[in-house]
Design a protein that fits this description.
There is one protein chain. This protein is of the alpha/beta class and 434 residues long. It folds into 2 domains: 170 residues, Aspartate Aminotransferase, domain 1, CATH 3.90.1150; 247 residues, Aspartate Aminotransferase, domain 2 (3-Layer(aba) Sandwich), CATH 3.40.640.10. Helices cover 42% and strands 14% of the residues. The chain contains 14 helices and 14 strands. It has an 8-stranded mixed sheet with strand order 2-9-8-7-6-3-4-5, with helices on both faces. α5 links the parallel β3 and β4. The longest helix is centred in the C-terminal third of the chain and has 25 residues. The protein is globular. The structure holds pyridoxal-5'-phosphate. Pyridoxal-5'-phosphate binds next to α4.
Amino acid sequence: MRREIVHVGAEQLIYEIRQIVGVAHEIAKLGKDIKWENIGDPVEKGLKIEPWMKKIITGLTSEDKSYGYADSQGVPAVRKFLADMANSRDGAKAAADDIIFFNGLGDAVAKIFGFLKREARIIGPSPAYSTHSSAEAAHSGYEHLTYKLDPDNSWLPDLEDLRNKVRYNDSIAGILLINPDNPTGIVYSRELLQEIVDIAAEYDLFIIADETYCNVVFPGVEFTYINEVAGRVPAISMKSVSKEYPWPGARCGWLEVYNRGEDEEFNTYVLSLINAKRLEVCSTTLPQLSIPPIMGDKRYLEHIRVQSETLAARAAEAYSVMKDIEGVQVILPQGALYFTVLFEEGVLNERQKLEIPEPDIRAFIEGITAGSALDKRFVYYLLGVEGICVVPLTGFCSALKGFRFTLLETDDKKRTGIYTAIADRVKEFLASSK
Ligand SMILES: Cc1ncc(COP(=O)(O)O)c(C=O)c1O
């Protein structure tokens, strides 16, 4: 090329949750049946969409308005519905114009980081949901800035670490948090959220709260929305229909912007996100139209309750299978769709392996594990032996080693088999070379 055309952040665009799929497909070609435990798609794992929701969506497909463009920010009546929902809580308020629809939160993340001034950094949790960490890193051209989630403190954020990084790095303009968190499943208490907001207030930062899983909170766990504690701090909440209905294929997510009026710079930034959406015309119309009739239906709350209870029971199942394994640490999730297993410091080495009976699969796995991160090594061997596809924790912008699998398998027998096989293989792997 006459000019270099590759963006300075291009090599940061790594999404391990999907990357591992390529390896799994190679193993499938060699005859292994793959159990997909890498991605948070409940539909892929056999979840049946509620017939009453399908009926509403089917009804919408027979209305002409579903086939047109929507307003760039989203259908006004739907934005009003969502603003009313947000405003039913005590706290910072949103107007319909503070709601901005995107083609899934993946699209929103790309815009949020893509239209942020290059020198302005967002600090986020580690382990991190990699769409955020990769997009932030790609936007800045540097490694993503992170604060620690501490496994020795139930995966809660190390606020000392966060405060110090914010204090000594004045390029930090915002704090990202994910609540309930992916991958750890932890839910932030009101006090903790308040402390994060206080740090933001002290250093004149804005907050991005990814609340994708706000309706996937396990029984007995109290959930606090960011607008309940934001006070006057500029904040963006991210929400989506992907994990709730669930309808990830709708590609329908939205931002709720709070306290736009409190800061001119923040307001201008939000306007740039809206303008970016205008260039694209709009986001998907039909899924937006489904929100008031579905989320406003009295059956919705019951749906959310049952779904969360089911996931909580599976989390408890996974916990009981994993909790006594020597060399790993597990924390019972409080929400979301995932379970994370952490290898204790020093238990992994590059000699550990699992016996793979099929010579071609063994050769393939031995080839790709050379030089890879030690948790990825386990993940590859697990794929080779059991065909179980999980995601290494080092793929979540983390120096900690471990892996994440989902709580989504609907077939009880199959799920118990998967969890037991994972536990057995962890033990075997760790024992193969101490
Ligand atoms: C924390 C978090 N944020 C955002 C997303 C993206 O969701 P969407 O389907 O709306 O793009 C996901 C998907 O897994 C997620 O886990």
